């Protein structure tokens, strides 16, 4: 069983929940890994590095709607001391941890993983993170999040099966209300929100190299229910297949089927079906793929039943080892659900409008690669046309709740992204990413609460075998909001946030950690009327077994 260190930046409307303690999620995930099968999905020439040098790749991952915004979500990472022991033959990969901090914070977490057989592995995780008080009116901005996850993998010589179950419960309050006169007490029950989510997934993939067709099938069922009788059931199935026509020519297929039912004031059925056949030609110097992305969507509430076809053309050229030049012309219907929108902005009001976004055309080009010294880089320019491009703003009826505002006209977005990363002998890791956005909306005033510039800088330093430090800095600029009751437009201050995490290995079994979040102490507003906590911390102990 291996212990891996991962960190990810999630973008595109990535406000998942209340910003309580920090603005980025650095996760050290225990995962049980098996040797990967020799797949031909998305076959492309690898970047060749020097023999014996361990590479760390940094890749710009484009979300469905590529409008970046750091995942401003409180999180507490697993203790770094576990990473230092990953290569020990008797590494302690299970742990229990507990901690607390200001604002009445409490953290409790348990992780247990096992590999009872060579081809069978499982992981189980239970976590609770809460704050008894928040940035506004004490308990009126408290919050709590509890999650439970269990998953397993079963790998044979000819196939792989993986399955998982998860439960998430979030409890928080709409504290973005107007300041109350002295002596007036807000009824907490009227501003409370509770969201319960259940999810189950099952996947099957062939790993038999002798079989001509490579394929993978995944299916998942997710349910959501909130305190105001809104609910959603969402079932999705995804198929990926590849057939070699010759040594360099492949026929590929992606197919998706989503069946959803949303209940609010009324019951809505929303379905989407996608078929994407493509052909791919690969040589030592380049790869090119071309196909059609055909999508059908239905929505009983909006009386929609339509099918559209989009281009799917991509080119990757490798003029020499270590450098890729790529370009693409693509389109799609971006699927939006109540669950996905609440994950972006938890302050949504009741009966929020949910509809899909059409990405009519996405033309992009860029370069990526790495140098012999271990520096990874990627730069990209994209010009995208949308219909039903959406943003969030305080609603007219209640400014403490948010509405989704869709632009039915053509929205054009220019995106310029650049990222670089460096890894020095596992002792120092750094990754820097910047995004610039220029919006041209047609039938709405502004892309409310959308940033025009974001900057993310992550660093991890191993000072000794017992001491580990991570630091991450974030910046968002260009957020605009409007109060539809008064008509006032506000340009929100630039968000700057610095977070530090220190882990110290006390003994083989015990370690201590300290998280310092929002070190700059800025009570910034990612969403209007929702100031975030200033400097806050969590400290605690972790026991590994």
TrEMBL record:
Q: Which InterPro entries match?
A: Beta-barrel_TonB_sf
One GO cellular component term noted in the UniProt record for this chain: cell outer membrane
Q: Which of UniProt's keywords are assigned here?
A: Cell outer membrane, Membrane
Region Disordered: start-end pairs: 72-91
Give the UniProt subcellular location, in the record's own words: Cell outer membrane
Q: What is this protein called?
A: Uncharacterized protein
């Amino acid at each position: 069983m291996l212990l891996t260190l991962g960190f990810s930046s999630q973008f595109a409307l990535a406000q998942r929940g209340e910003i309580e303690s920090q603005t980025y999620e650095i996760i050290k995930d225990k995962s049980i890994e098996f040797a990967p099968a020799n797949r031909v999905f998305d076959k492309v020439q690898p970047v060749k590095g020097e023999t014996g040098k361990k590479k760390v790749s940094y890749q710009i991952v484009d979300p469905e709607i590529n409008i970046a915004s750091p995942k401003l979500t409180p999180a507490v990472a697993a203790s770094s001391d576990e990473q230092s022991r990953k290569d020990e033959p008797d590494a302690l990969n299970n742990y229990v941890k507990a901690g607390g901090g200001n604002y009445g914070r409490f953290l409790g977490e348990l992780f247990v993983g096992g590999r009872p057989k060579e081809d069978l592995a499982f992981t189980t995780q239970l976590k609770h993170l809460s704050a008894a008080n928040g940035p506004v009116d004490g308990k009126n901005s408290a919050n709590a999040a509890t999650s439970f996850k269990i998953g397993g993998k079963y790998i044979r010589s000819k196939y792989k099966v993986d399955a998982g179950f998860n439960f998430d419960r979030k409890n928080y309050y709409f504290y973005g209300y107007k300041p109350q006169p002295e002596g007036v007490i807000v009824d907490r029950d009227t501003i409370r929100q509770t969201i319960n989510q259940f999810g189950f997934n099952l996947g099957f993939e062939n790993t038999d190299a002798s079989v001509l067709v490579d394929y993978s099938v995944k299916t998942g069922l997710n349910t959501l229910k909130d305190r105001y009788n809104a609910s959603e059931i969402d079932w999705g199935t995804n198929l990926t297949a590849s057939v070699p026509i010759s040594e360099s020519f492949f026929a590929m297929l992606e197919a998706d089927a989503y069946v959803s039912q949303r209940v609010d004031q009324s019951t809505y059925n929303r379905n989407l079906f996608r078929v994407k056949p493509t052909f791919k030609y690969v040589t030592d110097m380049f790869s090119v793929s071309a196909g059609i992305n055909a999508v059908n969507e239905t929505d009983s509430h909006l009386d929609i039943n339509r099918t559209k076809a989009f281009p799917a053309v991509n080119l990757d050229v490798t003029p020499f080892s270590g450098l890729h030049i790529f370009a693409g012309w693509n389109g799609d219907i971006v699927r939006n659900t109540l669950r996905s929108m609440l994950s972006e902005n938890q302050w949504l009001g009741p009966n929020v409008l949910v509809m899909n976004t059409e990405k009519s055309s996405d033309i992009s080009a860029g370069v990526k690669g790495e140098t012999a010294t271990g520096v990874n880089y990627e730069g990209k320019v994209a010009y995208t046309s949308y219909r039903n491009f959406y943003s969030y703003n305080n609603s007219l009826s209640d400014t403490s709740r948010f509405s989704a505002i869709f632009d039915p006209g053509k929205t054009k977005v220019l995106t310029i992204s650049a990222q670089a990363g460096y890894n020095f002998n596992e002792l120092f890791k750094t990754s820097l990413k910047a995004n610039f956005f220029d919006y041209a909306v047609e039938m709405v005033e502004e892309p409310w609460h959308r940033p025009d510039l974001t900057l993310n800088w992550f660093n991890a330093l191993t000072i000794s075998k017992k001491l580990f430090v991570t630091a991450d800095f974030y910046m968002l600029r260009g957020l605009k909001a409007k109060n539809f009751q008064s008509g006032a437009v506000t340009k929100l201050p630039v968000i700057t946030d610095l977070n530090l995490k220190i882990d110290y290995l006390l003994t083989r079994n015990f370690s201590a950690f300290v998280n310092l979040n929002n070190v700059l102490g800025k009570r910034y507003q990612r969403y209007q009327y929702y100031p975030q906590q200033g400097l806050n911390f969590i400290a605690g102990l972790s026991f590994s077994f």
